[in-house]
Design goal:
Diaminopimelate Epimerase, Chain A, domain 1
């Protein structure tokens, strides 16, 4: 017998629809088999589908998992933002914050003056020599850095926003030659503190519209380089999106807005 599941589509890191990064949020009473969760994510064809299951406990209200069309991931910012927005805006979540149990530990999201603030782990980076990453990008970088974050291992720093906008990386080289199969590029911004783009062909995402989790790497780097912990960022995808960043020791607060595009049911 087929069952139906409530699903929302939320444009995260955006104040209007058709901007930011769309994520599906699927509500579950019980976990489905992993291959079925992956099939739903493939069918949705968004960069992320988030699955939420109520798990009342001391630190977390929900268990949250994220699937790209290619795999389950350890951390996703925009789908976490979309999940929190769904709970606050549509499911009458009464508390001013919500806690999620995830593969990256307990993540909390709270209402902010404009949108929401997410508490995420920081992902410090260190310089690394990686000719394959440079060749995949096809331009001379200021530096290449790596992180211990599983799906965000390589970050290339470029000279200017114009260089980030003009980049045309070789996606097959990223998929095959770069650890994690993903590449993050960044530079100082013209009107914000820094800009970025993120390519994840290994996970089935050629270019992600707005990558919240990437800012766990970006924010500590730019905070140290610019000498301040509160930063404004923009991801330069076709859809684009704004991300506020606050570095707080080994944690990063990511601030952003979200708007609902779809509220309906899926049938499986």
């Amino acid at each position: 017998m087929r069952q139906r599941l409530r699903q929302f589509q939320v444009d995260a890191f955006a104040s209007e629809v058709f901007r930011g990064n769309p994520a599906a949020v699927v509500l579950l009473d019980d976990w489905l088999p992993d291959d079925l969760l992956q099939s739903i994510a493939i069918e949705n064809a968004y960069s992320e589908t988030a699955f939420l299951k109520a798990t009342p406990q001391a630190e977390a209200d929900y268990h949250l998992r994220w699937f790209t069309p290619g795999c389950e991931v350890d951390l996703c910012g925009h789908a976490t933002l979309a999940s929190a927005h769904t709970l606050f805006a549509h499911l009458d979540h009464a508390s001013p914050d919500v806690g999620f149990q995830t593969r990256s530990g307990i993540l909390t999201v709270e209402r902010a003056d404009a949108g929401y603030a997410m508490d995420f782990p920081a992902g410090p980076t260190v310089p690394v020599d990686d000719p394959a990453a440079v060749e995949a990008l096809g331009t001379t970088p200021v530096e290449v850095r790596c992180s211990t974050m599983e799906h965000l291992r390589r970050m290339i720093v470029l000279e200017s926003e114009a260089h980030v906008r003009a980049a045309t990386p070789d996606l097959s080289r990223i998929r095959e030659d770069i650890p994690g199969g993903c590449l993050l590029i960044t530079a100082p911004g013209d009107e914000v503190d820094f800009v970025s783009r993120f390519f994840a062909p290994y996970c089935g995402i050629d270019e992600d519209p707005v990558t919240g989790s990437a800012h766990c790497m970006l924010a500590p780097y730019w905070a140290e380089r610019l000498g301040r912990n509160d930063l404004r960022a923009r991801q330069l995808s076709q859809r684009g999106g704004a991300v506020g960043c606050q570095v707080r020791g080994d944690r990063v607060r990511l601030l952003g807005e979200a708007v609902t595009f779809l509220d309906g049911w899926i049938h499986i």
